[in-house]
Write a structure and sequence with these properties.
Strand content: 15-25%
Largest sheet: 6 strands, antiparallel
Distance between the termini: 107 Å
Shape: elongated
Structural class: alpha+beta
Number of strands: 8
Order of helices and strands: HEEEEEEHEEHH
Number of helices: 4
Radius of gyration: 28 Å
Length: 192
């Protein structure tokens, strides 16, 4: 068994399919994300991680096969992993993929649109199925890492600091003695 096959088997085992029998309706309920590799490129030197940018073509379907959305007639969708630009289940399915890889992700409702759905296209509590082709994969640059990881922390520190400085300024301004009254008292004392 080659290393690529071993990696694929480990990857599929990590996203094991779990289905439970709903006793009231006798329907199979999908509880966890399932990712199947449909096409694997011969050479896969780089796999995606959070922070990477992917260009993908996708077709999303309800479990009955009805197409809910597709990018095949448009430009590829740009997905920056970790930015929540797509539903949670699809983002999780895109971690660990290679450029040129095609996957089929079966996404449970709680990782898709949940109980509310996306009316009128997607009913509530609907699991979804996405076929995705990874057109290109770009690693996160050091600058992107700074912007994504460090800048939010710096901003969290700056906001309270700025609010504190504004508070001090307003406090001093409110309790400072007006300049006009002090001068008028000085003039009265000099006249006597």
């Amino acid at each position: 068994m080659g290393t690529r096959t071993t990696v694929a088997l480990i990857f599929l085992a990590a996203f094991a399919f779990v289905a439970a029998e709903d006793t009231e309706t006798n329907e199979s309920v999908i509880e966890q994300l399932v990712v199947e590799t449909l096409v694997m490129p011969e050479i896969c030197t780089l796999t995606s991680v959070m922070g990477d940018t992917l260009h993908i073509h996708y077709t999303g379907r309800l479990m009955d096969g009805k197409v809910i959305d597709t990018s095949l007639s448009r430009e590829p969708l740009v997905v920056e992993l970790g930015k929540r630009s797509v539903i949670t289940g699809l983002e999780e399915a895109l971690v660990g993929v290679c450029q040129g890889q095609k996957i089929k992700a079966t996404i449970p409702a709680h990782l898709a649109y949940g109980k509310r759905g996306y009316p009128p296209t997607i009913p509530g509590d609907s699991p979804l199925e996405f076929e995705v082709e990874v057109i290109s994969l770009s690693q996160e640059t050091p600058f992107q890492k700074i912007v994504n990881d460090v800048l939010p922390l710096v901003c969290l520190g700056l906001v309270p600091t700025l609010l504190g400085l504004v508070g001090i300024y307003l406090y001093k301004k409110a309790y400072a003695q007006p300049h006009g009254k002090k001068k008028s008292k000085d003039k009265k004392s000099k006249k006597k």
